[in-house]
Structure formats: structure tokens, C-alpha cells
Write a structure and sequence with these properties.
The complex is a heterodimer of chains A (317) and B (144).
Chain A (H helix, E strand, L loop, with lengths): L1 E2 L3 H10 L4 H11 L9 H20 L3 H12 L4 H25 L5 H24 L2 H21 L13 H5 L3 E6 L4 E6 L3 H18 L4 H11 L4 H25 L5 H21 L5 H23 L5
Antiparallel strand pairs in A: 2-3
Chain B lengths: L1 H10 L4 H29 L12 H4 L4 H8 L14 H4 L1 H24 L3 H19 L3 E2 L2
The chains are: A mainly alpha (317), B mainly alpha (144).
């Protein structure tokens, strides 16, 4: 059940009764003794895992966020709340790091991104609130089903480099959603506009809710909507999508931060692992066989989707 | 041919406010990530003692966030600001910078669109600032 209450007031009340570290130790002792490995084993494993994930994500041309949440949520002992918040910060960091280059080269278009971002970021707040309010098994079932759907989307969806747009529709014309970018491979400038704008905007409500609810980067959904439905050129769609994540994930990330759902011990190794992996991935890109890597990622996604789905259904603990 | 290519590249240049936004993201994201690295080293090395002892984390990270907050009495909302002397909450500075950059970028865009009398985009930017500030301020919360 969602309710709207000022978190600030709750925080002040909690600050007044904040427990000292020794009290935390006593409280956790009451939570039960853990006979598992030393505290640093899982964060170190997470760093190594996300480093490899960062390499694979670049080689397969997917955002790290979409792989991070289901895989870490399924195979690490962390609660899905902390994984989703880390997933959002991972996707946000990647988008912020890529944003400057994409904006300066005019590949990411503010005229296309700003209205879509407003819709998706507002929806992602509600998604994050729904995700935090739902029981873990329901979130895992929905996450698993979504990830399997994404894997199938990767198999069947095709992108079009320069979609045919007969002309801007009324909404795109009124908002002057169009642009021009320099295509370095041909030395030409490419002018573009979009159509089916209203339908595209509606779909971004759904994308925003899912991004916030599952802590996924939403590039897998942004690009097909911008490219195949609205008709933006592929490069503009990919770049605008990446930039969009920096806005959409910001609003959802604040919701998790404000709820105390961000554990630096999970978030920081993940961000650093994915970033370092991405740098290595970019260097390997010239030598790798992207098609083979793409198939590996699709299989990983299927596996990553099946795991939370079965966990949520209580079949695979 | 070379001149034509140069003209084409110039025609496709990004508007100044877009370049400025890009520069803000560049400086901010590098600052945020460098701070994350430094504060995380201070945290895990024990140089700055954490609020929640690291040895306790394996018992806690399996819990739902709301149960974790209830049990450990960690701060929510902006309460972390008063815990910056603790190693774990020191890491929030870098995360908050990363999560705050978009708001800063939009604050730069607003005067540019207002100056250009671009009514629709001025409103979009203004509403987005309100949405992000409300999210950052923690005005809404999930209950159970």
C-alpha cells in the first residue's frame, strides 16, 4: 500500500533515537549469528563479478544495469532492495560518464530527451515506491518475467539505422522535436525528426515505472521505442537513451537513498567494477566477436530471469 | 571536399546550453566517482569508523531495507548529512553528487530556454526540476 508521508519527518524522529554502533552490534546479534564467510568476501566477489559484467556489457552493446540487478539479486546474498538501489546507481554512473561526449557531439538530443525524461522520471518515482512496498517474492516474479521478456526482445528485435519518417506529427512539430547530427562515417549531416510521438510518450510511462521498480537501466526499452516506433536514427536513439538514464534513474535513486536502501558496501564495488570493466571492454571491442558475445549475454539474461522467477515462486531457493 | 565536411560538422554542432550541460556532467561525474573511491577506501580500511560495523553487514544485507532501517536505526532522508563522520555515510557524498548532477544541469538549461522564449521546454525543465527536487527531498515514501 502506498502512502505519501514526509520522509524528512521520519528521519528527524529516527535521528533523535539514533543508535550508537555498539547498539547496532547488539541489535544485529539479536537478528541471528551468521556462520558465512568473512564480511569482505561478498563485496570482493561483487567487484570481480561486476568487472566481468562491465566487459561483457560493452561487448554485447547493452547497459550494465539490465544485467546487474537480476544476476546480483539472484546469485548474491543481498536483499533485492539493496541490489535495486545499487543497480540504479550503476546505471546512473554509466549514463553520467557517457553523457558529456554524447551531448557535445549532438548525438544525444535534448529536444527529444527532455519531454521523454520528464515522463519517465516521474513514472520511475512511482515504480521505486511500488517496488519498495511490494513483498520480495512478487518483485522477484515480476523481475524474472521482465528479464526473460528482455532476453526474447534481444533475439527478435531489429534496429533501423535511418528509419523512414514521412514527417513530424503534430505533437513533434509543435514541440520542434528534430535535430541534425554529423555522421562521421559518411561525412554528411543527417537531419531527423520523429512521429508517433504521443504513443511513444505513453510507452515511456511504462518504461519509467519498470526502471524504478526493478532498478534496471532502461536502454533495452528506450532504444526500440525511440528508433523503431518514433523513428529517430539509431545513433540518436542509442545516445539519447543513454543520456535519458541519467535523468530517469536520478529520481528513482533518490527514493532508495531516502529510504536508507543504499548500502555503500554493495553500491561502491558495483559502480567501480562495472566502470573498470567497461574501460577494458572498450579496448577489447576491436578484437571481440560481438555476435558471439551477444548470444552469451542473451543466455545470461535468460538464466538471470529464470532464477528470480523461480525464487519468487518458491521453486528455487 | 574537406571544406564541405567541415561545414557539415559545423552545421551539426550542439547548442551552447547542451555543451554546458555536458561540461557539468563531466566535472560532476569525475568528482563524484573520485570521491566514491576515496571515501570507500577510508570506510573499508577502518580509517573512519562506520556507523554499522562492517562485520555485522552479512547479517543485515539479507534483510528488507525497511527492516534494516528499523533494526539498526540508520538515518533515512537527509539524516545521513549529520553522520558524515561515519565511514559508511561518508560514501553518501559521492552518491549524492552523482544523483544531484541532473538537477544542476536543469538549473542551467532553464535560463537558456526562458531567454529563447521556448515556452514548452521552459515548462518541461521547470516541472522536471520540481519532480527531481521532490524526489531528492524525500517528500514521498512507500508504506506497508
Amino acid at each position: 500500500m502506498l502512502e505519501f508521508v514526509p520522509v524528512g519527518a521520519v528521519a528527524l524522529a529516527q535521528l533523535a533515537s539514533a543508535a550508537p554502533p555498539e547498539a547496532v552490534g547488539a541489535a544485529t546479534a539479536a537478528a541471528g549469528a551468521s556462520a558465512g564467510p568473512a564480511w569482505w568476501v561478498w563485496p570482493l566477489a561483487l567487484f570481480i563479478f561486476t568487472f566481468i559484467l562491465g566487459i561483457l556489457a560493452v561487448l554485447a552493446g547493452v547497459g550494465g544495469g539490465v544485467l546487474f540487478t537480476p544476476l546480483v539479486g539472484g546469485f548474491f546474498p543481498f536483499h533485492i532492495d539493496f541490489v535495486r538501489s545499487a543497480g540504479l546507481i550503476v546505471a546512473l554512473s554509466g549514463a553520467l560518464a557517457a553523457g558529456p561526449g554524447l551531448l557535445k557531439r549532438n548525438l544525444a538530443s535534448l529536444r527529444l530527451a527532455l519531454p521523454v525524461a520528464l515522463i519517465a522520471s516521474t513514472a520511475s518515482i512511482f515504480g521505486a515506491l511500488i517496488g519498495l512496498a511490494l513483498p520480495q517474492n512478487i518483485v522477484k516474479i515480476l523481475l524474472g518475467a521482465t528479464i526473460i521478456l528482455i532476453a526474447l526482445l534481444f533475439v527478435v528485435s531489429k534496429s533501423v539505422e535511418f528509419p523512414k519518417v514521412p514527417g513530424a506529427d503534430a505533437l513533434a512539430a509543435a514541440m520542434r522535436i528534430n535535430g541534425i547530427y554529423y555522421e562521421a562515417s559518411s561525412g554528411e549531416t543527417i537531419s531527423w525528426t520523429v512521429h508517433r510521438t504521443a504513443l511513444g510518450f505513453i510507452l515511456f510511462v511504462v518504461i519509467g515505472v519498470m526502471a524504478g521498480m526493478f532498478g534496471l537501466g532502461a536502454g533495452w526499452a528506450n532504444v526500440p521505442v525511440l528508433n523503431l516506433l518514433m523513428g529517430a536514427p539509431l545513433k540518436v536513439s542509442v545516445a539519447t537513451s543513454k543520456f535519458l538514464l541519467s535523468i530517469t534513474d536520478t529520481s528513482a535513486a533518490w527514493v532508495y537513498l531516502n529510504h536508507g536502501a543504499m548500502l555503500p558496501m554493495i553500491t561502491v564495488p558495483s559502480v567501480l567494477g562495472i566502470m573498470l570493466g567497461s574501460f577494458v571492454g572498450v579496448r577489447l571491442l576491436a578484437k571481440a566477436r560481438p555476435k558471439a558475445v551477444r548470444y552469451i549475454v542473451i543466455i545470461m539474461l535468460l538464466f538471470a530471469g529464470i532464477r528470480p522467477l523461480l525464487q519468487g515462486l518458491g521453486i528455487w531457493k | 571536399m574537406a571544406v564541405k565536411k567541415e561545414q557539415a560538422a559545423q552545421a551539426a554542432q550542439a547548442p551552447p546550453e547542451q555543451v554546458l550541460y555536458g561540461n557539468i556532467l563531466l566535472v560532476g561525474s569525475v568528482t563524484g566517482i573520485v570521491l566514491l573511491v576515496i571515501t570507500f577506501i577510508l570506510y573499508v580500511s577502518g580509517a573512519v569508523a562506520p556507523f554499522v560495523p562492517v562485520e555485522e553487514l552479512p547479517k543485515l544485507w539479507e534483510m528488507k531495507a525497511s527492516d534494516y532501517v528499523k533494526l539498526t536505526k540508520v538515518p533515512t532522508g537527509w539524516g545521513w548529512l549529520t553522520y558524515l563522520g561515519k565511514g559508511d555515510y561518508l560514501n553518501y557524498i559521492g552518491v549524492a553528487i552523482l544523483a544531484g548532477l541532473t538537477i544542476l544541469g536543469y538549473l542551467v538549461l532553464l535560463p537558456a530556454y526562458l531567454k529563447r522564449k521556448d515556452g514548452i521546454y521552459s515548462v518541461i525543465v521547470l516541472v522536471e526540476i520540481v519532480v527531481l527536487v521532490l524526489a531528492a527531498a524525500g517528500v514521498v515514501a512507500a508504506g506497508h
